[in-house]
Amino acid sequence: MLMNDQPALAGAASPRLSVPRIAILVAALLALLVLYRGTVASMVSVWNSSETFAHGYAILPISLWLIWRRREVFTRIPAAPCWPALGLLALCGGAWLLARAGEVQVVMQYAFVAMIPALALAVLGRRLAGALAFPLLFLLFAVPFGEVFVPPLINFTADFTVAAVRATGIPVLRNGTMFELPTGNWSVVEACSGVRYLISSITLGCLYAYLSYRSTARRILFIALSVVVPVIANGLRAYMIVMIGHTSDMALATGVDHLIYGWLFFGLVMFIMFWIGSYWREEDVAPATAGAAVEAPAALPARPLTAVAVAALLVCALWPALGAVSDKAAHNPAPVRLDGTRLAGTPAGVPAWSPEFLAPDATLAGRYTAAGVPVDLTLLYYRNQGPDKRLISSVNRVDNRKARFQHVSSEGRLETIRGEKLALRETRVKGPDGNYLVWHWTWIDGQFIANDYLGKLRQAQAKLMMRGDDGAAIMVATPVGDDPDTARAALRAFLDANLAPLQATLEAAREH
């Protein structure tokens, strides 16, 4: 059974892809895997370590199965190499190199996977690759992407749950993503964000829409539903679990059954969504037979597949080579030394609060006093960054779960320190001995930066310009009570006295 076929091509006397030509295409794909083996390994590592992205193993078999279902197009459409596609390959390679310099794994992975359909376009041509567009683009779902949606999904789920519980008539006291009911306390954490449901739903929704509908409008509508429905369903799931716990006096939905109820509810919602979607299913369009009165298209002129495949691989090989040259030029073997003697005052002890970051090259930390209250300073310095040592990473957290510090809220702020504007992030964390207000930002290529995306671009620029990838995370924290302005005044006083010395300390470390 074929879909999206092109009846006008039926009966064309175009040549099949011969075994040597198929061998050329397969060899080109294998060479691409070898050239970017590090990126492939990073994807497999995430599939292995995260249940959220374990579906990545199924994407390639599904894509191959979809191509097999459309195998008849190889007999209908002649391969006609597309030389302009080499420019698309170059764009993907340039994006991969830029992401590599900034240590942005997900962009590297997307750029690599996008090279596969671009390579197919170059070798097979626009018409044949276009007939296989969805199976080729479906490979993009193999990229483990979605962690960026966790914070907004947590906030939405907390908003939805608290509003629904209050609408039920139960009083709720909320503190960030944590809230208290008369029967117990609840917290919306990463596992409650629904990101797994969302990723699963979008992947299955796209596949279902492709297989079930011919109309573009129906496909877009169903895919949109596969985005919206799991988000709403996750809010309902969280509300349901809280209500089960509340009505059972916390006897139910507080252990393993918490997860079981969630997956059963999500499975039911997904079944209903696909069941309803089946009522608008469109039958496949049967291709015209060879005997139909359809004029066969003129055969495209033969072009050398080997030449375009070799040229494509040379384009693909250019970027890993440039990356190796950049690494060698930017590598700094000198150890990092952080000298805290420039700071005003001496530390009175170790910080009571500490973040959870990947191990840096050097650390400067201590408890100081400003405006009569304790201020904890943590400075983490990174050099020669890699997958296991990154300044900006989704695994670096201000709320240190290992030390029982939980995230409460976070927002951007623009402070004035000694007449200069300083952009930073303000995060409130709840620890075992009370709440802390944390101001945090990064120092990259000599600049203070509060936005992680801009930080990555700055890091990539510095590395590609052979200035190295040195960077640091700067965090100051102080206990906070009911009046956050008191805590902010203490942090501001500490930075008034120490921001310039901190910058001098970082510059000195960079020069050695």
Automatic annotation (TrEMBL):
Membrane-spanning parts: 21-40, 52-68, 80-99, 105-124, 131-150, 195-213, 220-240, 260-280, 300-322
InterPro entries with a match to the protein in the record: EpsH-like, Exo/Archaeosortase_dom, Exosortase, Exosortase-1, Methanolan_biosynth_EpsI
Alphabetically ordered keywords of this record: Cell membrane, Hydrolase, Membrane, Protease, Transmembrane, Transmembrane helix
A biological-process GO annotation: proteolysis
Enzyme class: hydrolase
Main location per the UniProt record: membrane
E.C. code: 3.4.22.-
GO cellular component term of the entry, any: plasma membrane
Limits of the Methanolan biosynthesis EpsI domain: 311-504
Membrane-related topology note: Multi-pass membrane protein
Keyword S-adenosyl-L-methionine: no
Entry's localization field: Cell membrane
Presence of the UniProt keyword Membrane in the record: yes
Source organism superkingdom: Bacteria
GO terms, molecular function: peptidase activity
Protein name: Exosortase A
Designated gene of the protein: xrtA
